[in-house]
Design brief:
- The complex is a heterodimer of chains A (about 190) and B (about 200).
- In chain A, about 40% of the residues lie in helices and about 20% in strands.
- In chain A, the strands form 2 sheets. A 5-stranded mixed sheet of chain A has the order 5-4-3-6-7. A two-stranded antiparallel sheet of chain A has the order 1-2.
- In chain A, helix 3 links the parallel strand 3 and strand 4.
- Chain A is globular, with a radius of gyration of 19 Å.
- Chain A starts with a helix and ends with a helix.
- Chain B has one domain: Glutaredoxin (3-Layer(aba) Sandwich), CATH 3.40.30.
- In chain B, strands 5-4-3-6-7 form a 5-stranded mixed sheet. A two-stranded antiparallel sheet of chain B has the order 1-2.
- The chains are: A alpha/beta (about 190), B alpha/beta (about 200).
- Chains A and B meet through helix 1, helix 3 and helix 4 of A and helix 1 and helix 7 of B.
Chain lengths: ~190, ~200
């Protein structure tokens, strides 16, 4: 007689331990917080490695990028808005790189949510993207960031003591290269 | 006694199934905003394959969103054909599949291939849905009436009336050269389709 109750108790405990944290969508990354521990593969291209100020191989974390601020675009090659905004994001990259005051302070990377290396490569080639793009084929990073919609922009401020802080986190909201750059400068205290 | 044990373990199996199914995620483009209906995680494949690589592709006539009527045999001797069945308009993974194919026209052109997108939705629904994807370069066909008849011919009609997420590559002779009846919850990686196209003669 006691057995059904034991089974029910065990399954209830399992439900609360395992199901709740998984089925509840994680909160989207918020301004003021820190990045989750995202692992990205060191770029193979020496140019991209040099752009990010990285050395060696294996994985790295975004706060290891040598910069005062890092802009992270979460995109997908399958997302029409990401496709539409790609030229504008390229202009943002060019605006930063052509400004001697900014080029060593602000870096830009993209992470392809649900995109394999091949798919990220297609996006890079199609839109002639010059900044580093990283695959997230199994949605691991996308999930860590809170199942956000694409395109999504995150700006991370790197502090002198080695810590970092998310100073901007928004779905879409890319109002054009110049307004976006102004926002990055203000939010990260570079202005 | 044995039967009782199965009954007692049923809730445990049920709970663990929920745990397993709820772990999958998908990407959603902001382009569709709040208009995507979340169907949850579905049985990966819910049909019995009827066709194999090497079979002749069954012919069909379907209306396109553009107003044309597309006949498969019109491509015989002229174009390789890729059929992309997706389950339904306004659902999560489907909405993030064709926009990717839309930026690789050069890959299809390079292999002298045309892409035909097919769902069981009616034309007005497909019109509204595909408008959110931008200007598609390939025809989008409605297999609405008789409902899912072409999906059924290709062995990809699910028991609830939507199609599988499936890709068929058909050569210029009308012979099926590649079939991917994919897990409905996941998008087929592009490199697999590109690889299948690569194997076709121009």
């Amino acid at each position: 007689m006691k057995k059904p109750f034991t089974v029910l108790a065990v399954t209830s405990i399992l439900f609360f331990i395992f199901v709740q944290p998984v089925s509840a969508a994680p909160s989207p990354i918020t301004k003021g917080g820190v990045l989750p521990a995202i692992n990205l593969s060191n770029p193979k291209s020496p140019e991209e490695k040099s752009y990010l100020g990285l050395t060696g191989s294996g994985n790295f974390k975004i706060p290891q990028i040598k910069a005062k601020a890092v802009i992270v675009e979460i995109f997908s090659m399958y997302c029409p808005y990401c496709q539409k905004e790609a030229p504008g994001v390229n202009e943002l990259y060019q605006a930063i790189e052509s400004n001697p005051e900014l080029k060593d302070k602000i870096k830009l990377i993209g992470i392809g949510a649900g995109n394999t290396s091949y798919e990220v490569g297609v996006f890079k080639k199609t839109y002639k993207v010059l900044f580093p793009l990283f695959p997230d084929g199994d949605f691991t990073i996308h999930k860590m960031l809170g199942d956000i919609r694409t395109p999504y922009f995150i700006v991370v401020k790197m502090n002198d003591d080695g810590t970092h802080q998310v100073v901007h986190s928004e779905v879409g909201g890319f109002a054009g290269p110049q307004p976006f750059l102004e926002m990055v400068l203000t939010a990260s205290g570079l202005k | 006694m044995k039967k009782k044990r199965v009954v007692f373990h049923a809730p445990l199996v049920g709970i663990l199934s929920v745990f397993i199914f709820f772990t999958s995620v998908y990407s959603a483009s902001e382009a569709f905003k709040e208009n995507i209906y979340d169907v949850g995680t579905l049985k990966p494949i819910d049909s019995v394959p009827t066709l194999k690589v090497g079979h002749r592709a069954p012919d069909f006539v379907l209306p396109a969103v553009s107003g044309e009527r597309i006949v498969l045999r019109q491509y015989l001797g002229k174009k390789n054909v890729v059929l992309s069945f997706v389950p339904a308009a306004w659902t999560p993974v489907c909405s993030d599949q064709w926009p990717g194919y839309n930026i690789i026209k050069d890959v299809f052109d390079g292999k002298d291939a045309i892409l035909l997108g097919i769902t069981v939705d009616n034309v007005p629904t497909l019109f509204a849905w595909t408008r959110q994807m931008g200007q598609l370069w390939f025809p989008v066909l409605s297999d609405f009436w008789p409902h899912g008849a072409v999906a059924k011919k290709y062995g990809v009609l699910r028991s609830n009336g939507v199609s599988e997420r499936a890709l068929f590559v058909i050569d210029k002779k009308g012979i099926i050269r590649y079939i991917d009846i994919h897990d409905i919850n996941k998008r087929p990686p592009l490199e697999e389709l590109a690889g299948a196209l690569e194997k076709l003669g121009k």
